[in-house]
Every structure is written in C-alpha cells, then in structure tokens.
C-alpha cells in the first residue's frame, strides 16, 4: 500500500513520452487516457508530495510520510528532488527550491560526497525496507549512492546551474579522491573507475565501495557528455546545448559520424552558464539553438557554437 513519490515522477515522464508515440500511431483514445492520468498524477504530486522546501520521498502503508521535515530519519531524499526536475513535471519555483535544499542538506562539499538521504535510518522510525539493514552512513542508508548522485548533477544542469552541476560532477570523479596518499588511503578503492557508493559514516568517511559493478558509471558519462557539454544525438541530428561553469570560455570535442568527422568548438565569450546564440557548420551560420544535420560523406566538418 506504500507509495513512492520519485516513481510517480518517473511514471509522469513515461506517460508523457509514450503519449507522443501513441499520438504518432493515431491511437487517440490511448493518448486521452494517458493524458488524464498524467494530469491527475501531477496534481497529486503537488498536493501531497510537496513538503514546503522539498518533495517527500514516499508514504508508508498507513499514509505516514517519508522524506518529510517531520521525519527524524530521512528528512530529505535526493532522488525525489532530482526527478522532480528531470521529469519536467514540477513547477519551476518548486523545482529550484527543491534542488537548493539538496545543495543545503545533501551536498557535502568538505567531504566531497553527495549523500542519498539524511539523517540515516537507525531504528527510530518505521522500516523503509532493506536499506535499513546497512549501518548508518553506508551505501543507500545515508551514504553517497552514486546512481542518485549522477541524477543530482543532471538536475542542476537541467535548471541551468552550470557551476553547481560541474562542481557536483567533480565530487563524483574518482580521480578527485586520489590526489594525495591520505586520500588514497581513505578512498581505499581504484581511483580510475566509478564507485557505486561512498560512505559517510564517521568511522569510514570517504571510503568507496562497489567499484567495477555499478550502472552509475554510464549515468555519470551521460551527465558529463549530455548534461554539461550539451552533446545530444537524435539519429542523424545533433544538438549542442551546454550548461557549464561561467569560468569556461571555450571547450572542444570531436565526434565521428560513420565516415564523417565533426570537430566542434564551443565558445563562451560572455561567461554564461547556458544559452546558445548561434551554431555555424563549415562557416555557414544556422538558426540559434538549431540542430546540426549529420552527413555521412567521409569529410571533416568544422562546427562553431557560440554561447550567449
């Protein structure tokens, strides 16, 4: 009987995306059903999910909230906030406030970790399930669960907060946990693969776990390439919509499309975090924020993207 707020965000996004597919197929009755369901779900999320400064995580069988300010354990959970943004369902003001709460409550700058929830479960409330079997601060029980932390990076970028997105990505970069012998000893796992989790307990602060065995590596790659560098491929069309630190004045990347190569330069002359003024391909100026039509022609192409 329990209900998940973050899965409701995911369902909302799924209903939206599949409605587009159904509409293309001419399935109007199905589209109407899914749109009504999405509207009702969105209303329920705002009426019951919002806690005042962030979204609740879930509800127990008896209707008691989890991830609410009234909870002594798991007052706030990262996934419910990031998916409020990534789904596109949350109103802009609440989405921004929820991610500010993530920054305030869950991003641990000094320790260089982003924890999943706080405070950890330690027997003071109803059991949330198997994660309470982990000691406080270990894995999902209040540690950094990197899968969720990657979504935090993507959510910051979706809101246009390039500085926070990049800072958060660097926290998850394993190389950043091995810049001194002391850090290597504390991290205790390989500094060249993504850790599935990083502990936040006082006795094991900063220790990595579950390396070589995490889907978060793929999400972290997408967070860097798609959310920050803004490289998004749609079949034979490419869009470049970066969200970067205002300190970045330029970056470059190359992409091989079948027999062709596209050398892409992104310039940020005015130090913005997001916004594309113009895209030029081989000297030919395109529409602001437009797509690049990729061509399998065996040639090298020069792409200049100007942010503003």
Written account of the structure:
This protein is an alpha+beta fold and 308 residues long. It has eight helices and 18 strands. A five-stranded mixed β-sheet has the order 13-14-18-15-16, with no helix packed on it. A three-stranded antiparallel β-sheet has the order 1-2-3. It has a three-stranded antiparallel β-sheet with strand order 8-9-10. The N and C termini lie far apart (49 Å).
H-E string = EHHEEEHHEEEEHHHEEHEEEEEEEE
Give the beta-strand count. Answer: 18
Low-confidence stretches: none
- Tell me the strand order in the biggest sheet: 13-14-18-15-16
- Specify the overall morphology: globular
Helix and strand content put the structural class at alpha+beta
Helix content: 25-40%
* Strand fraction: 15-25%
Query: What is the overall pLDDT average?
Result: 96
Largest sheet: 5 strands, mixed
- Gyration radius, in Å: 21 Å
Chain-wise SSE layout:
Blueprint: E1 3-4, H1 5-24, H2 28-49, E2 58-59, E3 65-66, E4 76-77, H3 78-86, H4 92-105, E5 107-108, E6 113-114, E7 117-118, E8 144-145, H5 146-158, H6 162-172, H7 181-187, E9 195-198, E10 208-211, H8 216-228, E11 231-234, E12 237-240, E13 250-257, E14 260-267, E15 276-281, E16 284-285, E17 292-293, E18 300-307
Parallel strand pairs: 14-18
Antiparallel strand pairs: 1-2, 2-3, 4-7, 5-6, 8-9, 9-10, 11-12, 12-17, 13-14, 15-16, 15-18
């Amino acid at each position: 009987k329990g209900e998940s707020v973050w899965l409701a965000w995911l369902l909302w996004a799924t209903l939206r995306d599949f409605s587009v597919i159904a509409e293309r197929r001419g399935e109007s009755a199905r589209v109407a059903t899914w749109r009504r369901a999405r509207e009702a779900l969105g209303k329920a999320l705002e009426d019951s999910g919002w806690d005042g400064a962030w979204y609740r995580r879930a509800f127990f069988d008896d209707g008691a909230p989890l991830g609410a300010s009234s909870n002594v354990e798991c007052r706030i959970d990262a996934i419910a906030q990031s998916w409020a943004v990534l789904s596109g369902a949350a109103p802009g003001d609440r989405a921004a406030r929820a991610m500010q709460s993530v920054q305030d409550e869950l991003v641990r700058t000094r320790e260089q970790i982003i924890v999943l929830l706080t405070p950890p479960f330690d027997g003071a409330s109803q059991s949330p399930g198997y994660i309470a079997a982990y000691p406080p601060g270990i894995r999902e029980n209040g540690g950094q669960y990197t899968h969720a932390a990657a979504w935090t990076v993507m959510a910051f970028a979706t809101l246009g907060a390039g500085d926070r997105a990049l800072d958060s990505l660097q926290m998850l970069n394993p190389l950043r946990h091995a810049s001194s012998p002391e850090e290597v000893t504390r991290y205790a796992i390989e500094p060249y693969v993504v850790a599935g989790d990083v502990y936040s307990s006082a006795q094991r602060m900063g220790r990595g776990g579950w390396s070589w065995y995490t889907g978060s590596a793929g999400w972290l790659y997408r967070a860097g390439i798609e959310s920050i560098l803004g490289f998004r491929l749609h079949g034979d069309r490419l869009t470049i919509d970066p969200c970067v630190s205002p300190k970045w004045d330029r970056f470059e990347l190359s992409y091989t499309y079948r027999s062709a190569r596209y050398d892409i330069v992104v310039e940020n002359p005015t130090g913005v975090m997001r916004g594309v003024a113009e895209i030029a391909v081989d000297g030919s100026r395109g529409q602001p924020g437009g797509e690049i039509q990729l061509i399998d022609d065996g040639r090298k192409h020069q792409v200049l993207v100007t942010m503003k």
